[in-house]
């Protein structure tokens, strides 16, 4: 099924050589009639490897070397672009705890550069890829992503008739590059594996589910919303039992900047959020008259949440079982 949203559009993905970006580009090439897809990233090796893997590169793909810390480079890259998906970020929690200002320069200042370049080049829609770590953050990565969310929501004040900014926020991506799932899959015969805490839970989403959320957000966004998917939780100890059943489990304790459980939507956010079929939509607290009118479409699609509603990985009603998780992994290996 073709994604009509992208037909005849120029689409740019920042951080497009990352796990999400590479697969999303392939998704667009296969399922959309986008006229141009621009890969914007700072890693020339990954761009070269990506070029070698994608057969359609000579027709619609453009590879643009650059860093989101560089505003003039972004402005050049955004010229003539209709849609930007902002996925570039530094995200390794322990590393960023010890290199804090590098995270600030990329995740905060870089995101502001994306906003300014998009407004200056009259990009129609810009979507930030965010994370559950941004909710009540306890580490620097989450704090910088919270700032990025706030910047994107506030960005709608500067060019409301021309450029719209919204956010998608989701949990751990199954088998993303550098994730615990990838590490365990590459070390199936490990005799010993380390787990921080047996009670730890996380939200889990597949890349395909993230594509659906991103497409829904881009198709429906009015500007200022945060879209949160309804996704299952799983205990880390159960995940380890699936992927390393023979290994000895060593409990090492929670690392700096790590939570026992994650949240995707807080009680304070629930007061201005709506529940749709497959996701929640958090609306900005400060709305213009035009936004109030635009957001009524969500009222027709969903319902209000209770004021005390919280969406947390440990109290989630939807859980991945060992069988369902193993099926996801098997399907990934087949595809």
Tell me the series of helices and strands, N- to C-terminal: EHEHEHEHHEHEEHEEHEEHEEHEEHHEEH
Q: Fraction of residues in helices?
A: 25-40%
For the record, the CATH architecture stands as 3-Layer(aba) Sandwich
The stretches of 5 or more residues where confidence is low (pLDDT under 50) are: none
Radius of gyration: 20 Å
Distance between the termini: 18 Å
Strand order of the main beta sheet, please? 3-2-1-4-5-6-10-15-14-16
Give the full name of the CATH homologous superfamily.
Answer: NAD(P)-binding Rossmann-like Domain
Per DSSP E runs of 2 or more residues, the count of β-strands stands at 17
DSSP helical segment count? 13
Largest sheet: 10 strands, mixed
The portion of residues forming beta strands comes to 15-25%
How many structural domains does the protein architecture include?
A: 1
What top-tier CATH class fits best? Alpha Beta
Overall mean pLDDT score?
92
Shape: globular
Question: What's the CATH topology name?
Answer: Rossmann fold
Helices and strands: which structural class?
A: alpha/beta
Structure summary:
This protein is an alpha/beta fold.
Summary keywords:
Rossmann fold; 21% strand; 3-stranded mixed β-sheet; 335 residues; 10-stranded mixed β-sheet; alpha/beta
Topology:
Elements: E1 10-14, H1 19-31, E2 36-41, H2 44-53, E3 61-65, H3 71-78, E4 83-86, H4 93-98, H5 100-120, E5 125-131, H6 140-155, E6 164-170, E7 172-173, H7 180-186, E8 192-195, E9 201-205, H8 207-220, E10 226-229, E11 233-235, H9 236-243, E12 248-251, E13 263-265, H10 267-270, E14 273-275, E15 279-282, H11 289-294, H12 296-301, E16 303-304, E17 311-312, H13 322-334
Parallel strand pairs: 1-2, 1-4, 2-3, 4-5, 5-6, 6-10, 7-9, 8-12
Antiparallel strand pairs: 9-11, 10-15, 13-17, 14-15, 14-16
Helix pairs in contact: 3-5, 5-6, 9-13
